Structure formats: C-alpha cells, structure tokens
What does this fold into?
Amino acid sequence: HIHTISTSSDHEFEYSPEKMKEYIQALGIDAVAITNHNTFDINQFRDIQKELEGFCVVLPGIEINVGNRKGFGHILCITEQDDIEDFDLRCQKVSEKIQSADDKISVSELKEIFPSLGKYLWIPHYKKEPELDSEIIADLQDNIQCGEVGSIKKFIYCQKDNDGLIPVFFSDLRVSDEIESFPSRQTFFDIDEN
It folds into this structure.
C-alpha cells in the first residue's frame, strides 16, 4: 500500500524511484500495491513496474473516498495486472467524481463504476482514520475479507475479535527522498488451511 502521487488528500511529496528500490531491498518486500488517493496513473504505474522488475511484484490499485450521510472513509481497491486498461478507465471515473480531499462517492456510485466487485481486492479502513462506516462495510461484506488497521495494538486487538474483519497493517508509505528510515509496518499472511 504505497503512495507515489501527491494528491489533495496527501501532504506534498515527490516520488523517488531510488528510495522505492532501497525500501523494497531493505525490508525484503515481495509485493507492493500502488494505491494513490482517488487516482490511478497508468503511465506512472508502468514506469514503476519496469523500474521494479526483478525486485518485487507491483500491483495496480487506488484508495477511494467512499461515504454516506455520516461522512466518508477510505477503501483500497487492488487488482491484478491482466486488465489494467479497464481498471484505468474505472479509476478515471473515480477521479472525475472526487476532485478534493472532502469529496466522496456513494456505495451505489462505487458499484456503478466497479460493477464486478468480486474481481478486485477491497480493503477498507477498519480501525484507522478515516474509518469506513460500518453500514458501508456491511453493504460490501460479500467482497471484503479484511480491514486495514492503523497500529500494531489495533492489529493484535482485531486478531482476537472473531466477529470482525481480519486485520491488515500496511506501511501506507509516501515514497520520497525525505524518508530517513523505513517503517516496518507490513502484514504477513499465513495462508495455510491448517
């Protein structure tokens, strides 16, 4: 869950390809998802993919403001690389609707833009600000398996909650030359059936 474009939802930063490679090598990362706020830049994604070839898998994604009458939260949408042109077109529709940090789309708009929800990996802000409303999570529950948390403490707490979402904890890194040390905030999944 990496940011490479400074948007209205972020502080100013300039993406650094060298720092990205350094980060991946230093922490032994196998895969990253490029998930900028309410935007996807297919050309930048392809450049990053080429730069990181042989280093790790790079997945396309977007972090979307989704809300209702109570406000909005964020949800990550990550996809495979096989149909990136279609994903880009869908992300352009998100960008057209969300022009500022306070703009949001509704669940119905999300479903209209991404009619085959099951084709994507959806990860809402769960115990992390801005948290996606529980009504929205319930509406999307057939397509959500896990939720992003904002701290190790919340990760441990959520692991013990058998009724909640499976927690994930990401770096949520803005990759720039200003980074002096790398956060070691990754979630490792044990996918054995045992």
Q: What stands out?
A: Confidence is low (pLDDT under 50) at residues 189-194.
